[in-house]
């Protein structure tokens, strides 16, 4: 995951195009994107990077190129946990997901959701990914049984064909 920060992007046109042209020039695919007024966070497609021999050199090259236009922080060993399905009720889904993740002590580092509301992706540390999927599966599909009254939501989510993916 890369955090790309620049106050120069505030009110500018073409800044995102510059960032993504660097990825294009280096042949690197981006998975998830989250933006704010002065920052962009992206996760990189591991099948396009980590299957190669010169992993760290490529990552260093990406950072070097991006640092010409912004401050860049590389966060390695991250995983994407996706909630996939009809997520029209995204506020309820996120509320329940974050309740579960807070309870197990997991810090979400990035959230990405497209306008189609087909899926929501959460970026977490690799070491927490399996625990996240297990806890979210328990909460959404089996009822979390913690007595907080949210078990009633499980049926709604099942009806929407929500699924978890790592």
Structure description:
With 166 residues, this protein is α+β, with helices and mostly antiparallel strands. It folds into two domains: 2-74, VC0802-like, CATH 3.30.2130; 78-165, ACT domain (Alpha-Beta Plaits, 2-Layer Sandwich), CATH 3.30.70.260. Helices cover 40% and strands 25% of the residues. It has six helices and eight strands, in the order βαββααββαββααβ. It has helices at residues 15-25, 46-49, 55-66, 90-103, 126-142, 152-159; strands at 2-5, 30-35, 39-44, 71-74, 78-84, 110-113, 119-125, 163-165. The strands form two sheets. Strands 2-3-1-4 form a four-stranded antiparallel β-sheet. The protein has a four-stranded antiparallel β-sheet with strand order 6-7-5-8, with helices on one face. A hairpin with a 5-residue loop joins strand 6 (110-113) and strand 7. Helix 4 packs across helix 5 (126-142) and helix 5 packs across helix 6. Keywords: ATP-binding, Kinase, Nucleotide-binding, Transferase. Residues 4-80 form the ACT domain. This is aspartate kinase.
Distance between the termini: 15 Å
Taking all Cα atoms into account, the compactness measure Rg is 18 Å
- Largest sheet properties: 4 strands, antiparallel
Query: Structural class of the helices, strands and pairings?
Result: alpha+beta
Q: Which residues sit in consecutive blocks of at least 5 with pLDDT less than 50?
A: 151-159
CATH homologous superfamily label of the largest domain: ACT domain
Task: Report the CATH topology name of the largest domain.
Answer: Alpha-Beta Plaits
Number of helices: 6
> Class of the largest domain in CATH?
Alpha Beta
The arrangement of helices and strands along the chain is: EHEEHHEEHEEHHE
Can you tell me the overall shape?
Answer: globular
Total domains, how many? Answer: 2
Helical content class: 25-40%
Largest sheet: spatial strand order? 2-3-1-4
Quote the beta fraction.
15-25%
CATH architecture of the largest domain: 2-Layer Sandwich
Record field, number of beta strands: 8
Quaternary state, please? single chain
Mean pLDDT value: 82
